[in-house]
Amino acid sequence: MRGEKTIFNVQPISGTSAGGRNTRRRRVGLLALVLGALLLLVTACGGSGGGSGGDTGGKGKQSAGKKVDENTPSQAVVTVAPKDGADAVATSGALKVTADQGKLTAVTVQDSKGNPVAGKIATTGTSWEPLGHLPAATKFKVHAVAKDAKGRESAKDTTFTTLVPQNTFIGQYTPENGATVGVGMPVSIRFTRGITHPEAVKNAIKVTAEPAVPVEGHWFGNDRLDFRPEKYWAAGTKVTLKLNLDGVEGRPGVYGKQIKTVKFTVGRSQVSTVDAKTHQMTVVRDGSVFKKIPITTGKPGYETWSGQMVISERLEVTRMNGETVGYGGEYDIKDVPHAQRLTDSGTFIHGNYWGGGAFGNYNASHGCVGLRDVRGGSDKNAPSAWFFDHSMVGDVVVVKNTHDKTVDPANGLNGWNMSWSEWTK
Q: What is the pTM of this model?
């Protein structure tokens, strides 16, 4: 009995009895349950066995996040001043685009013809303003875009129309478009109304040169603005004047109405020096002496201005009357030949057929520079005729060794009598 009992304890491991088979089945079943539970646990924890399912779940969450952002309005708020549809808008200081809770990424302003308005977004990204004034009586459309912190865009579209001026001004300029001029010719602009906002007007006018050289403007009074380089123009220089006065408020309630581009060319260089002491004029062309001419200048009490003067007008024949320059009835010559204006006040370099032996010997005029000529100016070999034929508007005439003061820079096109520091002050 003991032996059987011992055999009975060992047999379940390898025996074939019914009891042994049942015990084995129970153990196998229990093992299957344990393995199944472990498999469920691993799957639930997103293990490698459930990789595709885990990826799918992740993508689903990202897609859901994007969908929410796309459907959530941008927090950025774009504001345009003036308000949409506004009329009679000021041409300066009224247009501004701002962004709150975001930054501007694009601003476009165009007139009805599609012409853009130049402007700049501030470094902070929160505002935009035009770089200059706007034309008057013009309709504009504005398109502005801003992004909030999450990159969501917000846009604003508006329109407005600038004011229609009741009072206007223009600039009358010299030289004319297409002209060829001497090296001393400034750009001179005279305004039809006195200007009380000089910086606004000056900033609307640009003068450029090719080859490039700095060109600066200087006001003479409140109705004249001249531009020149530091030294005379180089021969062959191409100069461009751009007037962008439309919409510029030159004085309260008075607006410019002019947009114009003017181009002219600087010809050969000619600078003539009049020496009142030696009674000679030396003409220098392109750096070399071209001709020497005997002259006469203002007699004592009527001395000729000294300084650098620019020929501003050329007349084959003109009348000179002492009454027009404050000399009463001292003279009235109706047929002065080959007259070239040097000052607004009446100084000319001109032909003289009545001077006798003064040329090259003594000063006998009432302040002008006289060159020998014949009545009617018919002698082309006369010194005055030669000089007239070899001159052009913008040529420089320098007068020295007189007993009079230097010509006022505003008297004619004679700003060269100011130093560069004075000119640009």
A: 0.80
